[in-house]
Write a structure and sequence with these properties.
catalytic activity, 141 residues, Chloramphenicol Acetyltransferase, alpha+beta, Condensation_dom
Length: 141
């Protein structure tokens, strides 16, 4: 799951885990679209080309809402890896790629009082910190 699937779909581990979580949540809630509040530690965010984070301490946490559509795929197709699952994963990956920069969302949402967002944050959260038990070179995945 952490090696072959991301490679097959040209996606990151976080994307694959988030998509799998969304599919399971959609099955549990009996819906085709789920809202998830995604949190990241911000260490992989590109603040600007000239910013070097290697000598900083702490995280640059990002938090942003994501709505993913699972296309109503039956759970048996998810468990068995049916061909339709590949199309759903590709579509969800493209939904994630189309999202604006997470850091920008946080800046607008929490620091700009002129921006009024009509909805509250999703009640379900997702936070993938990486492979914490891995060696130093592998931990950043």
């Amino acid at each position: 799951l952490l090696a072959e699937v991301p490679t097959a779909f040209h996606a990151g581990i976080q994307d694959i885990l988030l998509i799998g979580f969304a599919l399971a949540l959609a099955e549990f809630l009996d819906t085709t679209q789920v809202g998830i509040d995604v949190e990241g530690h911000g260490r992989h965010e590109d603040l600007a080309a000239e910013v070097d984070l290697s000598r900083t301490v702490g995280w640059f946490t990002t938090k942003y809402p994501v709505a993913l559509t699972g296309a109503g795929l039956p759970w048996t197709h998810v468990r068995t890896g049916a061909e339709a699952l590949g199309a759903v994963i590709k579509a969800a990956k493209e939904q994630l790629r189309a999202l604006p920069d997470p850091l920008t969302y946080g800046l607008l949402r929490y620091l700009n009082r002129e921006i009024e967002l009509p909805h509250t944050d999703p009640v379900i959260g997702f936070n993938y910190l990486g492979r914490l038990g891995a060696a130093a070179g592998e931990a950043s995945e």
